[in-house]
Amino acid sequence: MGRILGRGAFEMLNGVGRMRPGRRLKKNAPLQTIYLDNAATTARKPESVYVAVDHVLRTASANPGRSGHRLSINAARIVFEARQAVAELIGAKDSSRVLFTANCTESVNTVLKGFLGPGDEVVTTSMEHNSVARPLRFLEHEIGLKLRIVQCDRRGNLDRQEMARAISKGTRLVVMLHGSNVTGTVFPIEDVVTDAHKKGVPVLVDAAQTAGFWEIDVGKARIDFLAFSGHKALYGPQGTGCLYVAEGHALKSLKHGGTGSRSEEDVHPRFLPDGLEAGTPNTPGIAGLAAGTRFVAQEGHRKIQKHEIDLAHDIMHGLGHVRGVRVYGPLPGGLRCPVISFTIGGMDNGAVAMRLEREFGVMCRSGLHCAPWAHRTIGTYPHGTLRFSPGLFNTIDDVVMALEAVRAIAKG
Amino acid sequence: MKPSPKKKCCATFSSVHHVLQAEKVLQDAGITLDSIPVPREISSDCGICLSFSCEDGERVEKALKARGLSCERMVEVAGK
Asked: What's the pTM?
């Protein structure tokens, strides 16, 4: 891939030098950075993202659409064009139905709290992240929401038939992730949407791990609500997220306030996007998200997927040859996103993660990954796992060095 | 609306998003226009609207309709 830079580029960005893994650190020696925590946030962004954020802050940082002057209109245009770019990437025909939020969690909350009422039944899966689990538990406690949690298998796979059986005509909403942040399992969202729609039940898809990595067409897949983050595989800054709401669905807004429209009325407008957005938006962040989205569109899902899945398979293959290492999640070859969970014998995951970083410069995430349901499902609760999540800017060299580091630690 | 040569017309929309969506469509259709603060006589709205020659009123309506869009109101405004 022409655009993928070697590890030197990341080091330059971080102002650190190089070091071969396995070599003993000299005191105060600079350490190489191998970032394998892209499932949490892609720490490195395409150059165009940095440029876009900087450009907006310097030249178009007025309040979008609130005033009639050029700077305000230019800022509004930046937000409008960002909405168009995201809509195009996910196949949404009407960009006014793409809302900007602070993150995927806010998008999920907007649907759950704006759509569900007392006594409603929700069907979900045992692999969900706390961004879904916690608002569902909150609503269960607060308004008597009825939860049906479909159990996934030990590899994190969802059985379509079991999911279909759990959905009834009385179900108000199906909520499910697309890709797991613990095992990398990818769920068959199109099949579940088909089964749910047969019973007249809409579906909210949490695409935090897959938007930008997996080609999602909300029109073809007939997804009712799509929640996703901007700071992961769309390469935008943190503080950006999106929510797509299909035509025919109306949500009660969590927020009410200024929109720049209908200012003579003291009642919040219902039309989108204003109906679900209130207050000054994160214009610089949204501009960065738009640049990241355009980058993804330009690179193409196929190319991105191939590179990241190749790295994921290399990691899985390499880990499989390290004595004492256990890899969780789907077997190589199946549908997946680039997230690999593993443990090393009886070692403490946090301690291993610390050694990986301090001795080898390998940054990963250990523990429960904000997903206790998923760890209970795969049998790793309460200690969790170590997680490697390669991204587009990782190289095979990064993987080789990370594996060497795991080998060195596993040897004891 | 009958065309009024040299007169300026304004089209208002429900939100800034819809103004900019319309602006793009109309620019693509080759219509000369400007985005301006909504004049006082139309509304107290703090937002913006599209301003163009009233001679283009019909073209504006047609171009918007062709893309499944419409404005809230189109009115002739006083002054330049």
From this structure: 0.91
